[in-house]
Give the backbone structure.
Amino acid sequence: MEAMKIPGKVVIAMFLFLWLPVLVRGSTQKIQGTVRDNETGQPLQGALVEVRATELVCRTNEQGVYILLNVPIGKRTLVVDLEGYKKKKVKNVMVYPDQIMNLDIVLFRITAQFPEHEGIIPEKS
């Protein structure tokens, strides 16, 4: 009995059809959390939350909640900004495939004692 030859293009098409869902499965990374005032603990509406080096950005809702979808895998920096508060950078946020990360953030009010500057959270050891 003679073996049937399958053209290379058919093999590639079959491979992609069967494995593509597995290969792209890691596109559901999500970072979510609540942005709060450091003194009152109240949620802050309208804070701008962005993932540096991407186009991902959102604002917090009435409950101070933000949700960033499809965050690229790897080490990321989040920047949170709201008028009247010090801008905060959260560095070295590791994003893994299929991860849903909860990351709550506290902002400090700008006062005469503490003029506006970026609050940088150092890398955890």
In short: Strands lie at 30-37, 48-51, 57-59, 65-69, 74-81, 88-95, 100-102, 105-107, 119-121. Residues 8-23 form the longest helix (16 residues).
